[in-house]
Amino acid sequence: MESDGGKESEPELKGGGGGEGETEEGSARTHLDLTSFQLHDLGGVDIPETLVELDLTANRLTTLDVRINLLSCLNKLSLRQNLFDDDGIAPISQWTAISGLQELVIRDNRLRRIPDVRIYKSLVVFDVSFNEITSMNGLADVSNLLEELYVSKNEVTKMEELSHFHHLRILELGSNRLRVMENLENLTNLEELWLGRNRIKAVNLCGLKRIRRISLQSNRLTSMAGFQDCVALEELYLSHNGITRMEGLSSLENLRVLDISNNKLTLVEGISDLTRLEDLWLNDNQIPSLEGLDAAVSGSREKLTTLYLENNPCAGLPDYLTALRGIFPNIQQIDANVFE
């Protein structure tokens, strides 16, 4: 990133971002946000030892300033969008003074492996997305108190070392090279699972009872089988796959959002029992007509507010919009058409 032309001057840096982070006049500094200062190092920056949060997003750092290890009150540290490689981030594994850290973000750097963070026993958020990591090896040493784990946009090929994350609520593994859904059975508190842009061919959710959001967009699915036990599911995203039939959804009574766009569907079916469905995305399929649609979506006729059917053969039928508005009395949007 290029400099925005005013944040590199020493007076502003000495003040830690123009005074941001002071709770009142003369009080101890607890927050320091140096986002987009384009810093190569922190030599000209005052780093108060009272900091609770330190945000170094969007700089050009390659090494860690040793003064960070003096921040015994630090809860959140963001190193996002810098130039750290494995060696550059390695010292953090020995910094026991900040071992009470709860949130560590090393997103968008040059890591090739999971950093050693075993000393951070209180860690609840760990983000190493947008790096060059090829394996999840090392996650076994991450705190079992972790609630949010982000490893998206890497080159990971296998889901592993997850079994101890009993408190995990969010798992983001999108944009990797995964082929198989596995080792999820112990994640009994998982609420969100993001696996878009992988190479997964079949659904295996190991009966996750609390899962509320699932994304498997842009994979290689040909079947929807496998979601039937996810009874708490509210949002399901399956666009850009090779699914030919709607099935296995009748038990998902809490489902509000269903996206099956860009697949190979020829019939709307299997969702008549869903009474809470609000958004239904069926665009870019092969659905020939609107015949039977009323019955197919009977459970949510009055609840449905958004429907996408464009780029199906049925979207070219005369009175297409009029017919749909007649079926769904409370519809607010059909394709790009928004109604008052």
TrEMBL record:
Pfam families recorded: LRR_4 (PF12799)
| Region spans: Disordered | 1-28
Regions that span the bilayer? none
Positions with biased composition (Basic and acidic residues): 1-13
Q: Domain of life of the organism in this record?
A: Eukaryota
In terms of PROSITE patterns, this protein maps to:
LRR (PS51450)
**Keywords linked to the UniProt accession:** Leucine-rich repeat, Repeat
Respond yes or no to whether keyword Cytoplasm is given for this record: no
What is the protein name stated in its UniProt record? Uncharacterized protein
Organism listed in the record: Spirodela intermedia
